[in-house]
Structures are given as structure tokens and as C-alpha cells.
Amino acid sequence: MRRATALPKPPAGQPLPDSHAWQTLRTLFPYLWQYRLRVSLALACLIGAKVANVSVPVVFKEMIDNLSSSQQVLAMPILLLALYGALRFSTALFTELRELLFARVTQRAVRKVALEVFQHLHALSLRFHLERQTGGVSRDIERGSRSISSLISYTLYSILPTLVEIGLVLGILFVQYDAGFVVITLISLTAYIVYTVKLSNWRIDIRRAVNENDSAANTRAIDSLLNYETVKYFNNEAWEARRYDEQMVKWEAAAIRSQKTLAYLNLGQQAIIALGVTAMMWRAAQGVVDGRMTIGDLVLVNAFLIQLYIPLNFLGVVYREIRQALTDIERMFLLLNENREIADAPDARHLPAGPLGVDFQSVDFAYDVERPILKDVNFSIAPGRTVAAVGHSGAGKSTLARLLYRFYDVSGGALRVGGEDIRQLRQSSLRAAIGIVPQDTVLFNDSIFYNINYGRPEASAEEVYAAARAAQLHDFIESLPKKYETRVGERGLKLSGGEKQRVAIARALLKNPPIMIFDEATSALDSATERAIQSQLEQAAIGRTTLIIAHRLSTVMNADEILVFSDGRIIERGSHGALLAAGGHYARMWTLQQQEDASHA
């Protein structure tokens, strides 16, 4: 006998959480409660539609009984026909009114939840975003947003109408006929619901496995496509396809198992419905034979069965979809539960206006407590002055910029801007005062104009052009066929390294901040481009409090003070000339780099 395929495990680091359906519903409820008037009116229309729908078989029974009687009165069937038509139309009218009233509620709830998740993701720490998998997160948001609409629609358009209709039908059967019909109906409904719930709950973990492996496969695909050039450099298309297919094999196994269990669920549901319908029709037929019921009663019972069991049959599908939707929404809400590592203090203040100095006061920092990065770092940058941090890779230089932006909080000591501890400042106020030209400039897949304008979106077109001129970029842009509307491609790959750096400089200049950071801004450029960019960086630093983080010492010669980092500590400080004269670590680095430049020349 063939062994059953084991349920695939989720990717490492992505455990399958327990289901918290009620917690998910409680989280979603406030988004709907804002529109309680519309929801109430929609529910009133729902009840009106179901009352009209259940009344149709009753009127139809009266028509048949009147037409079957020996003394037919022509007026009565005509009135019943008119009532029959009015009820049919009322059902459609109330149904459409319900949908019109609830459309805004559904779409607005989806929009607000998606926006809140998006804003929350931007509020999370850099640590979260360095560890996240973009493809999986984007798929979770996409599925979660879609599932909110599905959950609301299924609940309002399927579950509630069916429950209302069941209540009305049971009431009519109990009042108009004997309790046996009610007992058979209740037994059938109970068996159907219990069977559906039990098997659907059993299938939840299987469905979760499908989703987890789908997200993992999507993550691998996006990661591979984002690194298209690297894949090509190493001729690893087959390797990437194999890694992607490995994850898709797990998804396929989970999806097949999900489909098999779905077939078992459907067969059981149909068996319960068949038994219930047979028992009801047998009892109704027996009533007609015994003279306790008319032909119209038989037709009425049959119509009720059709009205009950058709939506009830669909109810099984709806329940499965609702549980799946809850699983998907739960996954998205888990993103909202991610802790904001860096949050504004309750009494956080705005950064004061005017020239701003920067003070690192005995700063210690570690990404991991077992691996310190900065150790007792002390230095100040006076307003309008330029300080450079140099040293070998891994010395802790780039961490200075991340701390200054408050992507992380210092482990010890204090970091002050304008005399204020940045932990007591609003992050938005702090970051508005800082501009950066990074080593690796990542641009949006949009126009050059958009990417420069991103520095200050409310800036005018003339201000954007002025920033481009200051960065020596305007003439190049004007030489392009589409000029400022030229698209830069994914992450700016259509531009050269020097062109991207000039866009970064223009963007920072347009922001016009009092503090500027140049983080290895020319290290990835050739010597000629580096010299060209260097002059623009020096112009951009004029009048601003500037921190230059560099490996190439030729780019920091004109700094007011140079800090030499090694193993997270400042081991030397002074001007370029003073450090050379001291003959220490900086002087050796300078000599070595000069020899390298000479050999390259």
C-alpha cells in the first residue's frame, strides 16, 4: 500500500501559528463598527429579503390549493399571482439594496486595514526589515486584504441569510404542520453543520501548510528576480529554478492533500442532505395519502427543502472559505502585532530649529549583545563643521549613521542632536533634519524627476531642477530623450553608479537638511567619477553639520576633524596634516592607499 505524503513543514523561521479566529474577528470588528448605521440598514434589508423569499412557497401553495378545489374563484388566483410576483421582486429589491448599502463598508474596511498594516511596517525597526522576506510579507498582505472582503461578503451574503431563512422555515413548519418535520430538519442541519465544522477544522493546518509554502515559494522567486544580475553573473539559472521547484514540490504535496480532504468533506455533506430530503418527502407524501395534507402542502414542503438545502450545500463551501479567510487575515494581523522596537516616547519633543550640532557621548552599541560594535565612542560635530570617520571595514563606521537616524537605540551613553537626547525627540522631526548620500543608492522604479523630488515631495519643479544643477546632473538629464521623465528601472539599474550618486546628492540637496551624512558615498565609483562626485559632495557640505563615513582617505582630506576607528573605538583623531605628522595608523593607511593608486595608475 502506498504511503501517504507527509504534510510539508513550513520554511525555517516561519512556524504555523495556532488559530485565533475570535481574536481575529475582534480585531476586525472596530473597522466595521464605524459604519453601524449602514450595517443595521443592510441587516434590515437582509431580513426583508428572506421574509419575502420564504413567503413565495406559501403563496404558491395557496394558489395550487385554490386551483385544485371544486369551487374555483377566478379572482383569488389572480390576486395570489400578483402577490407572488410582488414577493419575487421584493426579494431581488431588498437583496440589491443590502449590497448597495454594504459596498462602502466592505471596501473602506479593506482599505483602512491595508493602510494600517502598510504604515505599521514602515514604523517597524530596521532589524525587522533586515530579517524579513519581502515576497512572503507582500503575499501575506495581499491575501489578508482580499480575505477581509471575502469574509464580510460570505458572512453578510451567505451565512446570515441562510440562518434567517432556516429560522423562518422552521417556524412555519412547526406552526402549520406537526413537529416531526422540524425534528427531521433540525437533525439534518445539526449533522451537516457538525460534520462540516469538524472536517473543516481538521483541514485548517493543511490549508495553512499550502499558504506557508506558497509564501515561501513566492519569497524565493522575488528574491531571485531582484538579484537577476547576480544570477546571470554566476550562470545559476538552473540552480535558482531547482530551489524554486523544491519549494513548489512542498506546495504541490500540501495542495493535493487539501484537495483530497475536500472531496471527503463534499461526499459526507451530500450524504447527509440526501438522507434528510428523503425523510422529509416521505413524511409529506404519507401526510397526503392519509388526507392530513394537501398537494399544495407537499409542494410547499418540497419548495422549503430546495430553499434550505441549496444554500446549506453552499454553506459548507462558505464555511471553508471563511476559515481560510480567517487564517489569511490572522497572518496579516500578526504583522500588526510585530513589536515596534524603536518608538517615540510619550512626551517626545520636536527638534529645535536653527543650526544643529551632533554629540556622541560615551556611546556603546551592539546589534548582538555578544558582539559589541561601538565601544565608548566620544566626539562632537559643531554646527556647520565637517567630521570624518575612517577605518577598515567592520570598524563600526556605518553604524554611526544608523544610530544618528535612530534606526537603533544606543546600548550605553547618549547621542544628542541640538543638545537633545534623540530618544526624547520625535523620530519624524529628527529624520527631517538629516540628509544622506549612501554608498549604494537605491532608486524607485520611476522617473528621474520622481526620484529627485522624493527628497521633498512638496517641492516645485524649479526647485527640483535647481537641485539637479547643483549636483551637476541637469545637463545629463537634458541630453536624454525623455529628459526628467526618463525611468530609472528597478533599483535604478538603468543608470550608472556615478549617475545614481548624483541623483542621491540632488535628492539630499532638495531636502535641504541642516545635517548631512555621506556614507561611503564614492567608494563604489571609479577614480575619475569619484573626483567629479567629490566636488559636489564638498559643495553640499558647505554650511551644514556634516558626517563623512569613508574608507578612501582622499575623500576626507578637507574635513575639520578626522576620526580613525578600529574595532569599534576611536584610536586617533585630528586634521589630515596632523594625523600624517603623527605617523600612526592613519599615516600608514594613507601611505598604503597612495601606493595602491600609484600602481593602478
Q: What's the number of helices?
A: 19
Helix content: 55-70%
**Rounded mean pLDDT score:** 78
Q: What's the story with the biggest beta sheet?
A: 6 strands, mixed
- Integer tally of domains: 2
Rg (CA only): 35 Å
Question: DSSP strand (E) fraction?
Answer: 5-15%
Give the class-level CATH name of the largest domain. Mainly Alpha
- Secondary-structure element pattern, one letter each: HHHHHHHHHHEEEHEEHEHHHHEHEEEHH
Helical/strand content category = alpha/beta
- Write down how many β-strands occur, each being a DSSP E stretch of 2 or more residues: 10
| Unreliable residue stretches | 1-19
CATH topology descriptor of the largest domain? ABC transporter transmembrane region fold
What is the general shape? elongated
Distance between the termini: 74 Å
CATH structural architecture of the largest domain = Up-down Bundle
Produce a short descriptive summary.
With 601 residues, this protein is α/β, with parallel strands linked by helices.
Descriptive overview:
The chain is an alpha/beta fold. The protein folds into two domains: 316 residues, ABC transporter transmembrane region fold; 243 residues, Rossmann fold (3-Layer(aba) Sandwich), CATH 3.40.50. The chain is built from 19 helices and ten strands. A six-stranded mixed beta sheet has the order 6-7-8-3-9-10, with helices on both faces. It has a four-stranded antiparallel beta sheet with strand order 2-1-4-5, covered by helices on one side. A hairpin with an 8-residue loop joins strand 1 and strand 2. Helix 14 packs across helix 16. The termini are far apart. The N terminus is likely disordered.
